[in-house]
Protein 1
Amino acid sequence: MEDVILEMKNISKTFPGVKALSNVDFALRKGEIHALMGENGAGKSTLIKVLTGVYDLEGGSITMAGKNIVNHSPEDAQKNGISTVYQEVNLCPNLTVGENLFIGREPRKGLFIDWNAVNKRSKKLLDDLNIEANPKKLLGDCSIAVQQMIAIARAVDQNCKVLILDEPTSSLDDDEVAKLFTLMRKLRDNGVGIIFVTHFLEQVYEVCDRITVLRNGELVGSYEASELPRVQLVAKMMGKNFDDLADIKSGHENKVDMNSTPVIDARGIGHTGTIHPFDLAVHKGEVIGLTGLLGAGRSEMVRAIYGADKADSGQLYVNGKKVKINKPLDAMMLGMGYLPEDRKKDGIIADLSVRENIIIALQAKKGMFHLMSRKEMDEAADKFIDLLQIKTASRETPIKSLSGGNQQKVIIARWLLTNPDYLILDEPTRGIDVGTKTEIQKLVLDLADQGKAITFISSEIEEMLRTCSRMAVLRDGYKVGELSGDQLNQADIMKTIAGSENGGSENAK
Amino acid sequence: MQSNQSKWSRITHAPLFMPIVCLIAVLVLNVIQTPTFFKISINNGVLYGYLIDIINRGSELVILAVGMTLVTAASGGQDISVGAVMAVAAAICCQLLTGGQKTSSTLAMPIIVAAIIGILVAGLCGAFNGFLVANLHIQPMVATLILFTAGRGIAQLVTKGQITYERAPSYKVLGGYIGKCPVPTPIFVAIITVIVMQLILKKTALGLYVESVGINGSASRLVGLNSTMLKFITYVICGLLAGLAGIVASSRIYSADANNIGLNLEMDAILAVALGGNNLGGGKFNMMGSIIGAYTIQALTTSLYAMNVSADQLPVYKAIVVVIIVVIQSPVFRDKIANASKKRKAVA
Amino acid sequence: MKKAKLSKTGFLLLITIVMFAVMYIAGMIIFQDKGFAKPQMFLNLFISNAGLIVIACGLTIVMITGGIDISVGSVTALVCMSAADVMENKGMSAVFALFLALIIGLAFGVVQGYLVTYLKIQPFIITLAGMFFGRGLTAVISTKMISIKNKMFLAWANEKMYLPFGYTNRHGVLVHAYIYPTVVIALVVVVLIQIMLKFSKFGRALFAIGGNEQSAVLMGLNVKSTKMKAYVLDGFLAGLGGFLFCLNSCAGFVEQAKGLEMDAISAAVIGGTLLSGGVGTVVGTLFGVLITGTIQSLITTQGTLSSWWVRIVLSIMLCFFIVLQAIIGGAGLKKKDKGKEKTAKATT
Amino acid sequence: GCGQATSGGKSTSSSSSSSSSASSSASKGGSGKSVTIGFSQVGAESDWRTASTKSMKGTLSSKNGYTMIFDDAQQKQENQIKALRNFIQQDVDYIALDPVTESGWDTVLKEAKDAGIPVIIVDRMVKVSDDSLYTAWVGSDFKAEGNKACEWLKQYADKKGIKQSDINIVDIQGTIGASAQIGRTEGLNDAVKANGWNLVAQQTGEFTQAKGQEVMESILKSGKKINVVYCENDNEAFGAIDALEAAGKKVGSDIKNGEIMVMSFDSTNAGLTDVKNGKIALDTECNPLYGPRVDEMIKKLEAGQKVPHLQYIDEAMFAKDNTIPTVTAKNAKGEDTKYDVTVVTDDVIKGRSY
Ligand SMILES: Nc1ncnc2c1ncn2[C@@H]1O[C@H](COP(=O)(O)OP(=O)(O)OP(=O)(O)O)[C@@H](O)[C@H]1O
Ligand SMILES: Nc1ncnc2c1ncn2[C@@H]1O[C@H](COP(=O)(O)OP(=O)(O)OP(=O)(O)O)[C@@H](O)[C@H]1O
Ligand SMILES: [Mg+2]
Ligand SMILES: [Mg+2]
């Protein structure tokens, strides 16, 4: 094979109770974008971590430009010209944006770090990539999307031969993704080999030259992207035929009675500094989507309803009754559930087992003195592991050792278990593979059919169009419009998001 | 063969395995040094022997370790004021019993009432710590530093700077023996504390809540847990238990010695938690581990006394044993050993 | 908007400095007639705490990585005792004693650093063992006090450096204020470490590790060697600080510097260092030392409190200070901090 | 500008007394300026210490023409150094220091001397390179305490016809490194060597009842023969007695018939009560009442008189009966001194405030 710059042979990796990789081969050519595909838990991230020395190499070999290498740590990997963006944003929240970009390779003047240069170069780097962030700002104060972009910026700025991107696009919106792709193509043209992990099939076909598919820790095969039709790719990933474009909405008629008392009726709810007062009504059986650009305040809107950030203005009516929500538990008691956007920070309780992570919300609702019996817990856990096909060694496995997508499924299970009347899903499909994504969308519609009210947030407009019966549009912390029925199409949504030239806060209601 | 091995590995990976091994190791060391170490006899109508000493003398430490485990799990920090809080509880209890006298051989009020008041005041101290940590988000070690310094001062204020003696025989019961029962009372107190705590952990969701809050506070809040309240509660429990330990310690010497009751015990309690395999950074905890850890420390102290190690060198031995224990407990070290033995097998 | 520019660390540092200034000036006004306004009174804060400043700087470094070192008090005692012993009993020179002090500190740093970094044992426990070990070893060298009479050493200790200002005494004579060389050394250490923290790769890596150790690994930093170096440097500074401490007390004895670790930790924390890591400055730590020193000084100047009230008032003032800092700091940073408290932990 | 501090070759006591008498013309009872004295106390770690503080504060009170600036060092030498520096800045007339430790005072005492403030050391001794750094010392002779207690035991054994080699003694030491522990342990060690006693065990009880009890328990379990327990303070003795009795031993002075003799130091109220009950055979006093002695010294210094550089405070011995009425033992300076043994009566106990 010509121009192979990185080759992995016979890679295996075992975790207690899981064979994450068995005898996987992988080859990356110079100047190609190579997609690494597979379901949640297929072993993509593990392969990357073995490659970059986060995990020890248990067997097999890695050659780079014909030379055998062993990376004992990401530091080694970087020295060998491999730079990586890992799946979860892995930066330091207590350092500034600029520092995160340059730490470990700071420009120096003599012995000292040249902070001016750091800031200047950061500014330039951020500007080049169109990232709106001040280099002097603390990273922890930036939204995840920005953090994600910064992680990418850090990786691409290093003169690398191999760039690895593990689901970099999961929290980016289309604009950002487009920016990233331009960048990736440029790097490819400069001869960098790129490994790209994603669950978005369109993206794969948009930028990738070749595709390697993993399933259950085993290599399925490597293919030219042009020679592998989409349906076949999915089939290879899942090991069975599957049509991800199935019109899942059919069979779910919209039976929402818009005149009934809304389950949730927010009037003038707002939270200073994040979301301006807004009105929002959600009815039984309805899936309402929130859309807007990055940072438009979708998450903030639902956080204010749920009491994650206590609303400081307006009133909330639940089933027509005025209620006061001071803390999330109040909302839960009123039948709400909230799947947060930032899985790592607000979702998983890392050291607890899958079982405990699933039952924790229900247990909190029941109160301290009504401990669920072990049997109840086990049954609940097993039911959802089965239902959502969560890939885990056992229900007692700590959630932190699950793959990213499977962690997300556990959090979804947590909220389904509480059987809420009103469920808020903020990016529920982030990092979830195609098969399951469809399952989740179906689930959402099923729940609506059962008479639950749902608010759904996703960066994928496609996905929203498939599930939502109504959409609210946000811009800069204001709710700027609401669309339903025929208006639910890409063009109209885009128009509303962009807004008219002069109207900042017109209300389409 | 296969199943044998997996059974063995299941045992060795059980959470309590290492703490128990360490305790046994310390005890075995004793038998070599002091052959009579395990001898238990009835002397003067009571049980008598080094083993009894360990279990008896370890009681206060066990009680403290229980509270310390909860605090550590919930807040990822330690309460270093427990020793001083013990002194406060003892001072209040004794002053109430002597009716403000320096020495008394009668009781100014029923022991149970005085003891409960003492314990409640200790709980109040815990509440103070809890407020600082949970509500004001002050780092635990610093928040509890306040009572660590002030506690003995308060105790002295209560006892007017002198040791208060309550010489009524009934006050000696808690730290001594109940009637003709040959088993020292502190053992019962410790066992009851442990049982009650185990029941609470088994029958309520406290344990799960505490772990959850300790691992990820913001996620816990979003699933409806009141992390402020939970942290606060653990500190109150820790305070109450410190109070109980203080009263037991005071009863042993039928007096309140503000300067010395529980002196340096906070460090031992923290050590017990760590030896029990718990992460001092909070999160998942193992109560039985801490209790075994506490007895391990007491076994060590008693053993060194039994071997007549001179007191000034005692900390050196203690340090060495502690390091050995934590090193063999360390997963990294165990992995290394496992790898080495695997390699040796492969060679053979 | 302007204020938002100030980083979180800068904001906390500013609060600390302002609060110190307010407290000191208040003291100068209240106790004007008691000499509190004299420049020497202020300089004494540095003179008496030179060793502590250096030790607390070392501690700040490991605290920034999210670690802790509670062995520093014992190391100080060991350093003083060894220095005294070699000079008085072995006839060595003061230079040798200084050397020995640094070696002892380094040795502690290397061993503790290795255990913490490479065997991943919790720093609290390792350094607790270090604390026992150091204290025990001190007693092994000698249980008696050794006072230092070495000429060169005493010359170092008593070398006053007069400053061009002072106060006019009751006879109208200008008494020059003075400092000792220890103060200069301490201040130089503060400046050097602050520069290192801000402007060196190593310094920034410390912050990255404290912010999120796992991320630091993934970003390609050499976490192990950085942490190891942090502990070695901490050990070195403990040795140096111990020697400065010794210059102040000119003696070695077993009970020396007991509880110094708590003083150092609280100084660092009051100065804005987080025990959970990732945040801290040594300038803040310096002010932390000055603040606790001033509180003590105010109480001494007042001079009518009974022993136990001294402890209580000391802690009330400490409490007041910590709480005020938490409230002002908390209010100023409220929005920023929300829900962020455990991000780092969820991953480790 | 760095100048070298030079203090004139004058002896401290004379230079300081003259400077202070110049500064405060009126002293006791005078309506004018009172004498300011800074007192740095060790802490409040025991009843004994509390009594000592009370004595100082009571005597050197405003009623008697003093202004006292009191500082509690909480057992930390570094705190005392800070306090002394503070006193110097406050321009006190005198400094009284009850040092936490014996050594480590050179620098700060030199500062006091440079400032012309006389320093009176009480209780524990200080070791400094230059004795003129302090004006006077008054305190206990711990070594002598040990010596005389052991001498008493020797004579007691002789009188009761017990062979010296039959004495099996346990030493429950004080906190290691404390001067009281050092002196009392040394006294015992010397006597053990001289008289051929068996030192069965030596372990610290850290001056507390709880530790004393725990250590005694442990020693008893070793099964060795014991007939004398030498406790280095009263609290340890209480603990040891409890442990002995719990193990079914009889505590008393009848060694021949299997009783175990407990000896102790300090002579607190509670200790003397146990002497009277026959539980403690001999309690050697350690006198905490320094107030009057310091008062006396300052009055002399104010009047321009000289005071002795070193003075020992008088300390008695207490026993249940007068089997041995007096003992002769060496004091710290190695001189033979005669000490009386007081028989404890209710009056003696009542007279003890601490
Ligand atoms: N640290 C770990 N300990 C134990 N098991 C692990 C650990 N990391 C991963 N696994 C397991 O290894 C398998 C592969 O995980 P991996 O993270 O590589 O999946 P992935 O393909 O990246 O999935 P996703 O698309 O969800 O990110 C999973 O079954 C997971 O549970
Ligand atoms: N590019 C950015 N630069 C600076 N701050 C941003 C940026 N994006 C978001 N923010 C901040 O984050 C807040 C909300 O962001 P967030 O991403 O949570 O909104 P969102 O509408 O939920 O978007 P998404 O869920 O797609 O990330 C905004 O108020 C803004 O202050
Ligand atoms: Mg992955
Ligand atoms: Mg969002």
Protein 2
Amino acid sequence: MTTQPAAVVRSTRRRPPATLLVGAALVLLVVLAALVSFIWTPYNPEQAFPADRLQGSSAAHLMGTDRYGRDVFSGILYGARITLLVGLVAVGIALLVGTPLGILAGMRGGAVEEVSMRAADILLAFPALLVAIMFGAVFGASTTTAMLAIGIGSIPGFARVARSGTLQVMSTEYVLAAKASSQSAFRIARRHVLPNIAGMVVVQCSVSFAIAVLAEAALSFLGLGTPPPVPSWGRMLQESQQFLGTYPMLAVWPGLAIAVAVLGFNLLGDGLRDKFDPKLNGGR
Amino acid sequence: MARLSDTAPVHGGPDEPLLRVESLTVSTQDRPLVSDFNLTMSRGERIGLIGESGSGKSMTTTALMGLLPEGVTATGSIKLAGHDLDLVGAPDQQLRRIRGNDMTMVFQEPLTALNPLMKVGPQVAEIMLKHRTASSRAAASAKAVELLAGVKLPDPAEAAKAYPHQLSGGQRQRVMLAMALANDPALLLCDEPTTALDVTVQRQVLDLILESVQQRGTGLLFITHDLSVVANICDRVLVMNNGQVVEEGTTVDVFSRPQHPYTRGLLAASDLDATDADGRLFTVASAGGYTPPAPDHLVDEVPAAAVHTPGTGAKTTETEAPAPTTPATGPAEPAGAVVVGPETTAPATTTLDAGAPVISVKDLVRTYQRQRTSLFGKRTEVPALRGISFDVAAGQRFGVVGESGSGKSTLLRILAGLDQPTSGSVRVAGNEVAGAKEHELAELRRQLQIVFQDPMGSLNPRMRVQDIIAEPLLAPGQKVDSARQRKLVAEMLAAVGLPADSADRFPHQFSGGQRQRISIARALICQPRVLVADEPVSALDVSVRAQVLNLLSDLVDEYQLTLVFVSHDLGVVRYICDNVVVMNRGQIVESGSTEQIYEAPRHDYTRTLVNSSMSLRAELAAREAALSG
Amino acid sequence: GSTASGEAAKDSVTVALTGEPVNLDFTTTAGAAIPQALMSNVYEGLVEIDQEGNIQPLLAESWELSEDRKTYTFKLREGATFSNGEPFTAEDVKFSIERVQSDEWVSSLKSKMDVVDSVNVLSDTEVEVVLKQPSNAWLFDMGTLVGAMFDPSGVEDLANTAIGTGPYTIEAWNRGQSIELAARDDYWGEAPGVETATLRYFADAVATTNALQSGDVDVVYNMQAPELLSSFEGDDKYQVLEGTSNGEIVLSMNNQEAPFDDVRVRQAVMHAIDRQAVVDTAWNGYGTVVGGPVPPTDPYYEDLNDVYPYDPAKARELLKEAGAENLDITFTVPTRPYATAVSEIVVSQLAEVGINAKIESAEFPAVWLDQVFTKHDYQMSVVLAVESRDVLAMFNNPDYYLGYDNSKIKDAAAEADAADEAGYAEGMKDVVRTIVDDAAANTLFIFPNIVVADANVTGIPANSVTEALDLTNIGWK
Amino acid sequence: MAIRLLVNLARFAVTYVAATVLVFLFMRAIPGDPAQIALGVNATPELLAQTRAEFGTDRPLIVQYFDWALGLPMGDFGTSYVTRQDISPLVLDRVQVSLILVVLAMIVALLIAVPFGTLAAVKHRSPGGILVSGASQLGVAVPNFLAGILLVVVFAVGLGWFPANGWTAPAEDFGDFLSRVALPVLALASVQGAILTRYVRSAVMEVMSEDYLRTARAKGLGKMEALLKHGLRNASIPVLTVTSVQLAALIIGAVVIERVFVIPGLGSMLLDAVGNRDLLTVQSVVMVLVAITLIINLVVDVLYTVLDPRIRKAS
Ligand SMILES: Nc1ncnc2c1ncn2[C@@H]1O[C@H](COP(=O)(O)OP(=O)(O)OP(=O)(O)O)[C@@H](O)[C@H]1O
Ligand SMILES: Nc1ncnc2c1ncn2[C@@H]1O[C@H](COP(=O)(O)OP(=O)(O)OP(=O)(O)O)[C@@H](O)[C@H]1O
Ligand SMILES: [Mg+2]
Ligand SMILES: [Mg+2]
């Protein structure tokens, strides 16, 4: 037995990166807002008080009121639910369908790849808007149909990102090594491909989250998303468009809320990405 | 710009040492990797750096270059003649002018050290363009081809247009070397530059290094595990262990009168002719009973052809390996591929089914299409295997030696079912590999494991060592619970000489040799019937090498493991294998029992090969002779 | 387009509009966009409706009505020509009217011509139209698009070429962007104040005012974002005109389906909604609250706000009476800005009286037409009814989507139409009052026609009485 | 070579045909009767039937499908019953506009993303890098319509440097084209640039720790220089993937910007056509999109192999 370098210090848990902490904190804020809205909001966020319309911030209305005299703060709290729901479900759909599809395509090649990637192409060419219109028209527009349409529309992005990453991973020698030890394709996908494309997929998730939240806003505006009077941040922002010159705060609050949520998820995504890259933080 | 060459340097007199390193310490946040390293090197001096794998050799040289990985820092002082500044902590701005020009380095792992998306020619040319040592882009390209020819790359003009992954391991290593020599540096740092080279090419490359070093007064710091190489080219030796220099002196002194027990151990382990009481190779731990070679009474043992004096070696080897002229055993006569009966060389256990060979290769051809270099350019064909045939019987230890780029790795990949032959047939343990579908190979893979040539590339950077090694246990059909997995992994780690806590670390945190051991551990954990190993010990220090070779021997004996062993180190092959085939340019030029091949080589190429191999004793003797003569 | 405002003697004007025509053929394609661009500008009728809603002569210099109020004799203007050079004659009148009755016209508005029995050419400049029964509405309708005068040789490709007697011809149509109208030099009447008038189309209201502010357009007509007006109102560089339109924002209730088949429930809705608050919040206070489905420019208009004052207590009472407390209903809202804006406040006010309305959006027009209009599959909806004098179209037809039982007004309406002008107005007032009493639908407010323009532009029609945007008089100070 | 071309064409064709069926069925699944929309309120059943016959929407689906699909290879999209015009030239006009807009935006976005993303990765621990990361993250959170409106408010309405909206074809008046295209391109590019910055950062992070970058530095290249010469190409594969996806998605996704800037692009055409249930036009627009997407992907696949010689041989 040779002598070994004295003490190879045991891997100690190091403090998670700052981005991760800040991201988690922001996401927590949004989650909290959503949770709080279930038990308490200062006012009924759907109730209009025409007499109190377009007020600035005050003790009674922390963030003022909108054109219908609804309390903006209540709307922001309540809207967190919709935002989280739409973002997570849409991204979830795309992630759960697109990523395996892309990995499958990248690993199997041949007919499987051909069919799944062409399908993704068609889907990509198929405007999410059109899907949303169809769902809206057939099932009646709602948060659910919007979520579905956005989710479906985001699938090709995930599929392509996953596939291109998979192609690169599959050309490495450690995959050869795994094949040589008779690992099933599934296991190679899970243990080799997935961890090595995770960085890109996480970024894709956080970007898609942002896109989903904003797309819900756009769909709501076109009448294809969350129907009024249920407040969603996106629609609050859209509705404030006309007031940019006169009551800019109406745009600032939902804008800020969206920014916080998106920023939170992005930072969380970046943080996770960096955390899971062993080379970047000494692997501890 | 101060360029150091054979002419007078800009600063300081000729007495000023070329390199002065004082109390260099390299450490991560939680432990030192190298402590208190001191070195003074004068112009033209050739210093060898040897030591255990993971002892900090690479870290030391990387620190000299100022290129330590993230999270690793250096303190102390490094002074290079002609530059006033201390290289430790010098601004990158300044170091940039030194790196690649006054000081160059050949990195340890050639696969990952080359940009995979750039053709190698331009990668070599770049270093000249960067330091304006070539007048134009065209001149640089032309010079690059010249340099590639200089490092004995066959068809250098074509090779310059290849991407790294299209070259064999040894070829890539030579590309690195060409790069390092391009600007005639004042100081050349070589981190195991010849591990992947076969002996003939190694000889040529060493001569090339020696030649340029001697002509230009270049200082050379040479890391290697091969003590005979050190004896051959170095004036002085530093022995490192555990991050510290434990012994230092002239080559002859250190090797013939080692002071430190570790040095003694190294010498013992490197001596493949010496075994301990149990008939096993010495390791550092068991080196107690070993007597180092005393050169004076060994001179007469040296075969004449193996005596090399620095600078003359090139003449003894042919620059171009001879084209196969009716080899003794050629592709035309597959039957001639000798199946050496187990009885002739079989190790202790002889309960072998001598009937069916475990591996049977017939007329194997593999031709690579080298990708079109431009979208519309034409493809070139690279015949990696040109029709080879041989059989391997169960329990046999089958060696494959041969020139770098002769198709050894390709052969192994095909044996493992990881690549498909262009034509021919390969049967392994009763399974036909050629044309087999992925699922049809499952059975093969249960029985066969492979150790890859490039250790880093074959380890998933995102998996912990525990999971990497345990991977084969997860293959379908295996049922091993996680507690048992941990236990088996721990056993394997011990068997290949890695500390138990390695299991929780990631591959990039290991030295080159340590990585190789990880991949060996992975291959052996599920006790395969057949192990194909591609240069499994070339990156290992001699002690670990001895340990691994002992391990392999044990396994072969215990489990009737059939071993296919590729190595350029004839000594190792001779030690471990009972049968050998010699490959050259995609063909088997000779095959037979080890003794037969080594003692009475019939083919020209085999002769060159045998003659080019160095042994520590011979080298030391030559050095003594040169000194006294 | 125009260059920097304030320049003297400009010969072009650019008007920003929302909603581009899909083609130029209003004889087969519904929608207000086509007549908005073409009527009065390219096509003209025998009569026109002025800004106060009165019928004025146009291609007919004058007309006479027979004693039995069934025969109109028009005396046509001499010297009027079509833009293809053909003179305008009595034959064209006959051709045009009969064409409405033929299969060539597939617009649903063709029914307005059903009352015509025959058209007789008396001379080149005299034509006689015989009605099946007296009708006040008919002559008014002749001032709208069904009364447009065509040339027999100019109807080949109505979808892409428009040939009329109006002051402009279509010079260019940049699909997706603009229609350029060029003034005719052979127009029979007074030439417009500009050489070209460009209609630029915008999908978004905010973009129209941006374009006005950056000088790309001179007039924003029928502005759809009243909240943006505040930045123009105090500014001398701009004029803001708040005209009325003949569009009513109608909160419709399906009269044939529970719970709105009960008049008390409908009346409760009438009391529950503070219409002024609706205008204030949804449309920034622009728009006229009239309490009935008749705009002020109609001859039979009267203020009916007193019938159902805002009175949530009363509403609750009525609901209780009807046994419809804590009512759950579905509110089908078309995807239009006005509808969304209105629906939010309406839902809130309904909630206060215990009606829980769940909003369901319906894509407009496709899904809304299909679901609400054709299949009557709805409980409550809201829509802007833009047709002029459309009370009877909406309420005098039990098969209409409102499902109002017209037995009480059917005869009165026919009588009024046949009466003389005074009798017409009085009769219709009675009809309207009956409709309102029955709470057949809740007319929330009359849609405003808001115009923002460069202060120097003159001759902008502030009121939108018919679909036409009449650019005959437009010009620069 | 010829065979590969043929294979590619065949693959293209099959995908295309599959897409036609899908689009066709999709459009029929959406409720709403084109005849009803053309006639509007008060339409009588007789008139509706007459109009349907005229539009041909009363024919069996299979007949309608072939009537439309067989014209496609000839570039004949049919005649819209809404505009009563040949669809092909109208769509091509819009395609041009959209492509110009989106491609310009994507180029600008890359010009933003590559340097900033690289910077954010290289300096991922320093304030500068964190700032860039943060800015890009905020950028992602800005809806592009908001970016558009703000640009208009500041640069068109406020400063008067650019027209607020509208479109001029480049061939018509290049100066005017530039002044009108600047703001919408900027609005799209700022958001897309922020998105791409994140991908560039991630990809560059990935290559930064590679050994060959150390080799490059050993040659005397600076950190940045090594990254630019050796790292970017290695990082470009994932970025290329995302760029191609975004490019395809943006052709319709730019509809909001088209609305804010009143640009006659494909997105607004699609929206209008769907609104009018102009089935043939919708189908045609989608088929054009499918074609563009397929072409983009074909090009990207070729680029992959050009960029990375290791990626699967000519399959
Ligand atoms: N990036 C890293 N971070 C932390 N520790 C590292 C890193 N790279 C290497 N090490 C550790 O530093 C020590 C010295 O490594 P080094 O590469 O210098 O060894 P070596 O002497 O070159 O060995 P070999 O002969 O096997 O190449 C080893 O114990 C290794 O585990
Ligand atoms: N993927 C590839 N594409 C094209 N040519 C290749 C490829 N892989 C290997 N080659 C070529 O095939 C030949 C044999 O390569 P191989 O890796 O088998 O050599 P080797 O005997 O293992 O050499 P070494 O001892 O240097 O590792 C070489 O000339 C090499 O350049
Ligand atoms: Mg090393
Ligand atoms: Mg090899």
